[in-house]
Amino acid sequence: MLVPETDHPFPRKPFNARGSKVVRCDACRLPESFCICADICVAESAADFWLLMHHNEFYKPSNTGRQILQTFPGSGVSEWQRLQTQPEFETLLKQRKGSICLVFPEAPDYKHRMIKNTLELEGRPLFVIPDGTWRQARRIFRHSEYLQDLPVIEPRVLEGSCYFLRNSGPEHHLCTAEVAVALLAQMGDDIGASALLHNFKLFNERYYAAKGRNLQTAAT
User: Fold this and answer.
1) Does some domain include residue 2?
2) Which region holds residue 19: left if phi is over 0, alpha if psi is between -120 and 50, else beta?
3) Is 142 helix (H, G, I), strand (E, B) or coil?
4) In angstroms, rounded to a whole number, what is the distance separating the alpha carbons of residues 151 and 173?
5) Could you list the residue range(s) of the whole structural domain that residue 116 is in?
6) d(Cα 170, Cα 8) in Å, to the nearest integer?
7) H helices present in the chain, as ranges
8) pLDDT per residue over 148-179, tens digit each?
């Protein structure tokens, strides 16, 4: 699948929050001295992933969708726009029709679109994950007309989130990487799930180390 280059002309404004002056790796977005790229596990997976990423997320160092892209070379990403699709995603919608599935929690108003098992799809699953804050992800899911006919699957969550770099609200929603881990686990793809989980934990550890903090402290 097509993965846009890192110099793709978005987001609309650069990352200017605290830490924006730090020299970072272009791939993992961690400070260069804490880069995880040499230690990343690359694996095959039982499904493909595509991130519909909110434009605010592309330069955020705390974004975990990058671990999916680095773990599974066949995954891809495009910027979300409410009224139109990026060409690469539009091509996928045509070529992979029948195997594409949106990833989002179940709700009564689209219960008819929910599937419980990927065997209900045609061929190799392609999971489309709205990537952003919970509010942004909900907007992507709810306000994209071109997504409204796609089937939806809810990740089977066995544990709460272990991601402490952002406040996910009182519901403790999983971050993007954790969502992909949960999907692979419920498909029985232990190798793919383990590889992504390894990279996600490594990212968390190095991120906290770069901030001079201990990850175990954040978890308590």
Assistant:
1) no
2) left
3) helix
4) 21
5) 45-156+171-219
6) 34
7) 65-71, 87-95, 134-142, 176-186, 190-210, 215-219
8) 999 999 998 866 566 666 655 545 578 999 99
